Amino acid sequence: MSASQTSSSDLPADVPTLLVKIFGKDRPGITAGLFDTLAAYSVDVVDIEQVVTRGRMVLCALVTEPPPGLEGDLRATVHSWAESMKMQAEIISGRGDNRPRGLGRSLVTVLGHPLTAEATAAIAARITQTGGNIDRIFRLAKYPVTAVEFAVSGVETEPLRTALVTDAARLGIDVAVVAAGLYRRAQRLVVMDVDSTLIQDEVIELFAAHAGCEDKVAEVTAAAMRGELDFEQSLHARVALLEGLDASVVDKVRSEVRLTPGARTLIRTLKRLGYQVGVVSGGFTQVTDDLKERLGLDFAHANTLEIVDGRLTGRVTGEIVDRAGKARLLRRFAAEAGVPLSQTVAIGDGANDLDMLNAAGLGVAFNAKPVVREAAHAAVNFPFLDTVLYLLGITREEVEAADILDIG
């Protein structure tokens, strides 16, 4: 589906207008042909909207009334032209422009795999129940998930988000609600967690596998991610189990790290759009520095495993990157990038990411624990990191077009 819309200057409410609607099989020249036909009657264009779905076009033109005595001829000519193009025409008399949209404008992005009619009906009904009006619906992507965007007016963003997110889990879909406006395209810094977000692994568990203590470390990690343990204490406890491990393991762990599906696409697309991209991690610089170089990241910060005489000491050096530390780093990166916090996006999956997600202009819970999904501005529960692009209003077609241009 594609759509375009434009508007003239404000039109007095009592000025007679005609809504000219053309529909049928899409083919080149329809839009030009309609306006060539209308041009003979000296009408002004007030509004245009065109939608094409699976080869079927609906073209609507709101125009001023022609000079006295010519409306009947205009109607007959438009119908005759439409018939010659094997299209249908409908012309409705009225007054003034479209009614103004209500205050409070939001963009609702719905992700489904599949996106069922039941879920779509429920979302549309809930928007109506909150007092909102759907002004436009646009498909952002058809794979790896179906993503559609609803432009909604008449209700403030926060109550709309609360209402829709409550329904999302029950419907088996993801819903993100953000305020509409220019700022959405101006979000110029994206900061991600690393373990189980940018990558599929927990880095400390990869190190633990080489030390033979994977089960013990995994148990502590899971409790920390659920928010049941203090992160700093759990970090020290887990790292202590790595004492004596040969430093050559670092290269092995780097080679074992698996990027989350869609991670490269996400970063590549954001960078092409001029975004700055960074990572913060409760993991280790021995891995994040490598990821920064490989992926062309602008920022990276993590804990550092202490290595003495070619072996891990079982300690970390420097300031610990914990829950509060991630939020501080988001602010620091934003300041260095010259981007206000309102124009930042943070992505994470665990309780350790909550402060960062709340501090960002848009906090996205990615395949996250329930406590994180409930607190974040938006949630993505599909295993493809590039679906975050749709929450920013970037379409699949734009991503693919950029890839083609880059190859060319």
Task: Provide a descriptive summary of the structure in words.
With 408 residues, this protein is α/β, with parallel strands linked by helices. The chain has 15 helices and 16 strands. It has a 7-stranded mixed beta sheet, sandwiched between helices. A 5-stranded antiparallel beta sheet has the order 1-3-4-2-5, covered by helices on one side. Strand 14, helix 12 and strand 15 form a beta-alpha-beta unit. Helix 3 runs antiparallel to helix 4 and helix 5 crosses helix 8. The chain is elongated and about 95 Å long. It starts with a strand and ends with a helix. The N terminus is likely disordered.
List the SSEs and their pairings.
Layout: E1 2-7, E2 16-25, H1 30-39, E3 45-53, E4 56-64, H2 71-84, E5 88-95, E6 105-112, H3 117-129, E7 133-141, E8 146-153, H4 157-171, E9 174-179, E10 189-192, H5 203-211, H6 214-225, H7 231-240, H8 249-256, H9 263-272, E11 276-284, H10 285-295, E12 299-308, E13 311-317, H11 323-337, E14 344-348, H12 354-359, E15 362-366, H13 370-375, E16 378-380, H14 388-391, H15 396-407
Parallel strand pairs: 10-11, 10-14, 11-12, 14-15, 15-16
Antiparallel strand pairs: 1-3, 2-4, 2-5, 3-4, 6-8, 6-9, 7-8, 12-13
Helix pairs in contact: 1-2, 3-4, 5-6, 5-8, 6-7
